[in-house]
Amino acid sequence: MRRHILVCITLVLAGLTVLLISPTIRPALSKNSKAGETRVSPHRAMAFAPLSLGDDNDDESIIQRGFEIAPVHLDLRGKNRALVGIGSYIINTGGCNDCHTNPPYVDGGDPFQGQPEQINVPCYLSGGMNFGIAVSRNLTPDSHGLPAGLTLDKFIHTLRTGEDPEEPGELLQVMPWPVFGKKTTRDLTAMYEYLRSIPHRPTCTGP
Ligand code: HEC
Predict the structure, then answer these.
(1) Atom of ligand 1 at shortest range from CA of 180
(2) Which end of the chain is more exposed for a tag (fewer CB within 10 A), N or C?
């Protein structure tokens, strides 16, 4: 009788022990448990840790990069070099060439065809691309040195409001002014200063 009671107690204790430790060993034993669930995955770590700014994000690096990627010769006489560099960075990473150079790349230099990129330098930013409802404008400096024939104030006003400088009261319809117009006055001024330093080109009629 005593032995039976002892066996019973032992069994109950063993059962309890298994119940207690099972949550700890279950994930390890289960085939479906994701390995390393308790470790922080690299993706999780990315989501929660702040990224560092990097060492190429100050104005001087942006200016340098701007000069590296300018596809045309720049006339810096009477220009603010820092603004030209920043402006080049914004314009040449901002898609202006895709709509304002007709066509944007020379034959055999189209990156979309897997060819080594060659921007259409002779037509660079001289407009003339037909979008049906509008034709892109010539952004190069006119005979007075004004980009697209616009003063700085007019240029900033155009990008901020979308008001067509050639048809006052009308809004530009293709030009993405609602996004470009959100830039700081410093950045819009830099874009203007860069456009002031590129060579004048007559509008290209395309291929
Ligand atoms: C999606 C194509 C597209 C892109 C990208 C684009 N533009 Fe335009 N832009 C146009 C077209 C088309 C017009 C002519 C009017 C219109 O949109 O109705 C125009 C007009 C302008 C005008 C008005 C000029 C004038 O005197 O009438 C300026 C200034 C201008 N663009 C500057 C820029 C700059 C700077 C960039 C790059 C930051 C840029 N655009 C990017 C298509 C584009």
Answers:
(1) 38
(2) N
